[in-house]
Amino acid sequence: MKQEQRNLALDVLSASDWLRDYPTALVQQLVQEGRLVRLNAGEWAQAEGDDRSGLFVVIDGSLHSFCAAPGGRAVMIGVVAAGAVLGHATRYSGGPRLVTAVCVEPSLLLEVSETSLERVAMQFPEVWRAIAGFAYANTRRALQMAAEVISLKPRQRIAARLLAAIDGGGLEGTATLRVSQELLGEMLGLTRKTVNSHLSSFEKIGLVRSSYGQVKILNVDGLRTVANS
Hints:
Helix content is about 45%, strand content about 25%. It is an alpha+beta fold. The chain has two domains: about 5-135, Sandwich (Jelly Rolls), CATH 2.60.120; about 150-229, Winged helix-like DNA-binding domain superfamily/Winged helix DNA-binding domain (Arc Repressor Mutant, subunit A, Orthogonal Bundle). The strands form three sheets. The chain has a four-stranded antiparallel beta sheet with strand order 1-8-3-6. A four-stranded antiparallel beta sheet has the order 2-7-4-5. A hairpin with a 2-residue loop joins strand 10 (about 210) and strand 11. The longest helix is centred in the middle third of the chain and has 25 residues, at about 125-150. It is globular. The chain starts with a helix and ends with a helix. Keywords: DNA-binding, Transcription, Transcription regulation. It comes from Sphingomonas lacunae. One of its GO terms (biological process) is regulation of DNA-templated transcription. This is Crp/Fnr family transcriptional regulator. GO terms for molecular function: DNA binding.
């Protein structure tokens, strides 16, 4: 493990939502026990249905997550970036992987196996509480996404999903989402034409800047106002 990669992993985990309130020594032990994996754009970090347990933490780069839908389709359900956690620990959620995660760009991930988690827990049993915390947060985000699709009109739905990507995907403040308008529409149950129309209106009032394959968030408070309108 290169020292600069290790230092980056320590910084990202220390600032992540699920570990920022835990001892620095716990973060250091997770990095020590984990394995840094470099993946290229288009490579899979995990596949839905995999039996392998353990966690992947995104250290650098971004990924798209997909879930199987009726008709043999794979539907995009989220964007994940630095600080986000994939996978699960069987102690809290038995069964195979729930989503497929594909790198959008060259990415660096920290893989922590179930065996490694057990070793970490021998010194820091609170690691299980941290894992339960992010599992709960993922469930809450899934319910929020369902509520948005059911209750919000397209304009509000797009704003809410952009905000959720920042909040739940490991992104903060002004950030760039590596997602095409077509895939964003897939996440929202909307056509690309509808997404393009609303993003254009957001751009005119300074909320976002969209370009090929990405959307840059410029005004979080403004998007929040739209989502809640």
